[in-house]
Structure prediction request, 384 residues.
Amino acid sequence: MNMQRSGGVVDLDALSAEALPVVERGVLNEGVFHRMISLERKRTERSRKPFLLMLLDVGNRLQSEQNERTLGKILSALSLSTRETDITGWYKDKSVVGVMFTEFAVDDRNAIAGIMMTRVSETLRSKVSPQEFSQIGISFHLFPEEWNHDIPQRPSNPTLYPDLASRDSARRFFCAIKRIMDTVGSALALLLFSPLLVVIALAIKLTSKGPVFFRQKRVGQYGEQFVFLKFRSMHVNNDATAHKAFVRQLIAGGAAGSSSNGNGQTVYKLTKDPRITPVGAFLRKTSLDELPQFWNVLRGEMSLVGPRPAIAYEVEAYDIWHRRRVLEAKPGITGLWQVNGRSRIKFDDMVRLDLRYAKTWSPWMDLKILMRTPVAVVFGDGAY
Prediction:
């Protein structure tokens, strides 16, 4: 069952008298309700108490006087089956009603949805006719959702993020500019660096056994996976156990920093990884191993600027709020993290940089980050 917080006032003339109890409590308009869903997600990230969003799809029920009365009955029924602390609003204006149930004490996720489904269904049946009830679509969406990276579909539930869809729609023009920049920039980069790509490929092939390219499934925007390309910098058939353990400690804040080349600076990365080849160490230090990712950008799986694409076992260790870095922006080759110290920054601070970028990005910001990237690459600031 889905229930949303909403803000605003519903036109009293548009509803029947039966809906007045709900109106008095306040039925939020679409924009405010979407904002309340976003705020409730952030509360859950801190409190770890889930909330349940119930949606009642009533279709175009405001086309006739009869449909107005039916909608009034539905809203009246909701007033009887919800608490004063629950939030009601338009998920989709005059079409989909949302109710957000918060502060659950029940630990069983399935039990929460079952309890609310029974309560609301019984109340609705007592208020509307069987024919009207059959035309109401009811769905339930629990946050935080469980992400399953073993399936090809998007693991995140888009219904719980209407504010992101609205934001992207408002930025449609800038998004188009960003895509043009990505397409033109990646195509030019592949053409310009083509001789260097050949030299690096030969160096890898002549110094170690295995393929030239390293292919790995990474987590893109909204949790969707894609095949990520890099020049291979490690020996083949290596054991990733140590890296997985380090990543989990890093995300949990328990990873100890290492001294960077004896210069006193602390880095949060495996600086002496036995899996890395001599040529691979040079490629990583100079970030040349990243060049094949221009192909990912050209395909639209990545952007020139954005958060670094995460590994699936990394995302599995994320705290709830960490997920926002893969939800709110497409992954990129470079970003605020890369030009602000890279591995010298703790994981939580990296996520905050990614979220700041997602919230404030513009084509001009992308250009500034792209112009700062060569300097970061040349000096190898935080690169390992």
